[in-house]
Amino acid sequence: MFSFQPVASVWLISIALVILTAVLLWLEVTKAVHYKTLRVISALVLTVSLAAILLRPHIRTQSSGFSILVTDNTPATVIDSLKEKFPGADILSHGSGLDNSEKTSSPNHELAEKKIGIVTGNGLNAAALDVLPEKSFNYLPSDLPEGIIDLRLPKEIIAERNCELTGVINNQSDSVNLALSGPGGRIDSVTIAGKGLQPFSLGFVPKQAGNVGYRLSVNGKTETLPVIIHSPRQQRVLVIQMFPTFETNYLKNILASHHRLAFRYQLSKNNFRYEYINHPNIRIDRLTSEVLTRFDLVMIDMDAFAALSPAERKNLENSVKAGLGVLILFTESPKPGTNAQLFLPFTFRQIQKDTAHFHLGKRLTLPAWPVEAKTSAGKIIPIIENKERILTGYAYEGFGKIGFQLLQETYSLALQGDSSSYRNLWLSILHSNARTENRNFEISIANDFPIYESQPVQIEVKGSSTVAPTLVHNGIEVPMAEDLVIDDLWRTKVWAGEPGWYELQIKGDSVKTFYYVSDDSEWRSLATANAIRNTKKVSSDKPVQSHSSWEYKPFATWLFYLMFVISAAALWLTPKV
Fold first, then answer.
1. Do the domains 147-231 and 441-518 sit in the same CATH topology, yes or no?
2. Where are the domains of the chain?
3. Cβ–Cβ contacts within 10 Å for residue 74, how many?
4. Class of 236-433 per CATH?
5. Quick one: pLDDT at residue 107?
6. CA separation (Å) from 361 to 116, 160, 163, 384, 408?
7. Which CATH architecture has domain 147-231?
């Protein structure tokens, strides 16, 4: 039942303790003092406790072979049933998962030494999951917390362009009010009725680039929403049409302020008219490869595409594969076999609806060609869509993009005085279809929002350079390791500091990004929901197997030290009484 792990030879310790015990008992028996019996007992307790400290006894116990980790919000009934089913398993706590009377707290660094078989409750945050040696545990999750449990922003937010914040709230009251505020005050709000998981969306148009702290309030409780706003990239756009249209005239007013434009209208077979806005006058009577490299996007209507020579069409196709973006504008309902469709990687299916209702910051209705786009290769990436079909989208062809636009008479929005929606619609189409900006490196943060102080921040750098990047974190160089399988992918990890903005930059390159560390008191429901999702994601569906075995566990050393101090104090105090 017992084993020992002595600090020295057992025989040496035993001989020394026998001599010490004999000396102490002889001194107590021969002395004429009060409380002789108490002193003899104290001397025996002192030597026994000293023997236990030096011999370090272990007791034989039955173990299940794994530990049960109890996290916050675990019902007591779950703990009791697990104790009954796995009587030999250690019950560990992370956070406040157990009552103080039976709590065995396990900080993150101690989890690396444990074999965790079952996790219960709210799960583990990124820091705790990061140190677990193996992730083959079963997970018994708690219920999702009340409040916002999912929050999503577009990957890239551009100034002066419509942006939509979407999410899910777990509502436990009759109704809840959400309000989004920016630097200039309240922007948008929504009232949600009904209990349970409820989706929501809030729209805003950022005015200028920078790192901005928006505010999202739920029934008056406000939390900081960090938003990184990028400057709009100046695009070089070539518009090719048989003749000017109302749409073109309205587009000029929108695009002229930030972009460089060239227009080519075909008056007859070999007679063209040109127009340039913020763009130098160049020859564009023939679409050569050299001409097409000067542009990021070519917008061409179906009639003008049909009038292209075979050489021009081939040059356009090769330029797309090299990275150019092309947007086809239909002058009539697209049908199978048209010239434009010989170039497009799409097919179109006739449908009955020639009107589209969609949401772009607000509810909009426009006429649309009565077709639905399909593709057999790759994937159509939507730019604007509704529940029924993709209204405008694109597909990758090589390194470039080929897009389509099914909405008609979009200029009617401007005629109705809604120039903001008209602007957002076309800037979204232009930005999405244009040539992807070439960057040597791209920095991304793998963490879910929010990030709290002292948590690990996972950073990934993708590169196309032959030189390994040097990452600079708030002015300090951080080492990175390249992925063993994927070329030109580097990873590293830093630990979040105090709440606020932090900058990440590649040394010698203009690319940079930022991340925000939130205050511990904010976004608790979202952080808990993230922990539940992430713990469930890495857990195993295979039932945990209890492998009963015998092992020796040490006695609590502090108990022997306490016995030693009490007995020594008794021997010292009794002569003074």
1. yes
2. 2-61+555-576, 147-231, 236-433, 441-518
3. 24
4. alpha beta
5. 60
6. 47, 13, 7, 11, 19
7. Sandwich (2.60)
Inter-axis angle of helices 246-255 and 419-433, nearest 10: 80
| pTM metric for this prediction | 0.71
* Adjacency order of strands within the sheet including 175-182: 157-158, 221-230, 210-218, 175-182, 185-193
Total H helices, total E strands in the chain = 14, 36
Q: Any idea what DSSP says for residue 124?
A: -
- 187 in helix, strand or coil? strand
Could you tell me the CA-to-CA distances from 141 to 144, 162, 505 in Å, in that order? 9, 37, 38
Residue type, 568: A
Q: 531 is written with which tokens? A: 């922990």
Query: In 3D, which of 109, 110, 99, 96 has the Cα closest to residue 67?
Result: 110
- The closest of 94, 142, 103, 104 to 122, measured between CA atoms, is 142
Q: Are 320 and 282 in contact (CB under 8 A)?
A: no
C-alpha distances (whole Å) from 266 to each of 273, 307, 338 are 7, 9, 20
Q: Is 288 in a helix, a strand, or coil?
A: coil
> Roughly what angle, to the nearest 10 degrees, separates helices 10-30 and 36-55?
170
Closest C-alpha among 464, 429, 242 to residue 325: 429
Locate the DSSP E strands across 107-219.
116-121, 138-141, 147-152, 157-158, 163-171, 175-182, 185-193, 196-204, 210-218
Distance of CA 360 to the CA centre of its chain: 25
What is the mean pLDDT for each group of 10 consecutive residues in the chain (577 residues)? 76 86 83 78 88 80 70 88 80 64 52 77 84 80 92 87 89 90 90 90 88 92 93 89 86 85 84 89 90 93 87 92 91 70 77 88 88 79 89 90 92 88 88 84 90 90 80 90 86 91 89 92 93 89 65 74 87 76
Question: From the centroid of its chain, how far is CA 76?
Answer: 32
User: For the domain 441-518, what is the CATH superfamily, name and number?
Assistant: Macroglobulin (MG2) domain (2.60.40.1930)
147: left (phi over 0), alpha (psi -120 to 50) or beta: left
Amino acid at site 356: A
Q: How many CA atoms lie within 13 A of 82 on its CB side?
A: 26
pLDDT digits (tens, 9 = 90+) for 228-257: 998 888 889 999 998 888 888 888 888 888
